[in-house]
Amino acid sequence: MHVGKPITLRGKSLGSGRFPAICTPLVGHTREQILSEVELVKAKQPDLLEWRVDFFADIGNLAKVLALAAEIRLASGEIPLLFTRRSAREGGESIAVSEEYVVAMLCAVCEAGSVDLVDFEMNSDPAHIAQLRAAAQAHGVALVLSNHNFQLTPPQEVLRQRFAQAQQLGADVAKIAVMPQRLEDVLNVLSATLESSQSLSIPVVSMAMGPEGAITRLFGGVFGSAMSFAVGASSSAPGQIPIEDLSAVLRILSKSMGKR
After folding, report:
1. What is the mean pLDDT of the segment spanning 175-193?
2. Whole-Å CA distances, 214 to 6, 14, 82, 158, 189
3. For this structure, is 139 an active site residue?
4. What are the start-end ranges of the H helices in 43-182?
5. Which entry of 64, 139, 148, 259 is annotated as an active-site residue?
6. One of 5, 42, 44, 175 is an active-site residue; which one?
């Protein structure tokens, strides 16, 4: 039982109906490390892999990025791939490439057909968002527009506005991650997620990071969050839970709440 909208890829719900879908990050620095991660993680049966390309040492070489994206696609089998460059201002690795290069890279991976979703930050230049949205739509790739705050949790109204902003900007999925300072912040995240999942036409994804935020990763789906991130090999954000633990909790929740 859930109230949110599932993420749909090529007419099928991500995770074959599991809600929320489980995504595991790939954060290796080299080709060999990343492909090794794929082999380790895919055996744990996530619903989605996320390649955090800002960890990749050769991110500035577009040919190597495209070649490795194709290799990840082949190695991962049927598991869909989310392609993400997280900026340093929103918690990502510091990389010596321009924002124009990043947009061109994201558009190129869409055109190459090696990924199913791309993540881009909604606070980016509106022209860059429009450029990427057009490329994603042209090649059947879902666009995730995201916002991350590693310092605090904004008020509920601000969280709802950010979810709505992602939809207004043309996102297929809206994602918000924040840092709670107290348990009341966690409640605000869950409340904003519930309301937005019901009022918006696109799926929403939310999480509160750190120890206090673990509740949102485990139970966010009950409040409408369509995806939760879990550790397969290495984490990409504070508070991520091992995929084995998250899968077990979701099975228990599905069994218990399905009886309603």
Report:
1. 96
2. 21, 22, 22, 21, 12
3. no
4. 62-76, 99-112, 126-138, 156-168
5. 148
6. 175
Distance of alpha carbon 155 from alpha carbon 132, whole angstroms: 29
- Strand, coil or helix: 225: strand
The alpha carbon dihedral of 134, 135, 136, 140 has a sign of: positive
**What tokens were used for 36?**
């090794």
Nearest CA to 227 out of 250, 253, 195 is that of 250
The architecture (CATH level 2) of 19-254 comes to Alpha-Beta Barrel (3.20)
Mean pLDDT lowest for which of 4-18, 186-200, 235-249? 235-249
The average confidence (pLDDT) of the chain is 92
Verify whether residue 175 is a known catalytic residue.
Answer: yes
Partnered with residue 50 across adjacent β-strands are 25, 82
Write out pLDDT tens, residues 79-136: 999 999 999 999 889 998 999 999 999 999 999 999 999 999 999 999 999 999 999 9
CA distance 252 to 111: 40
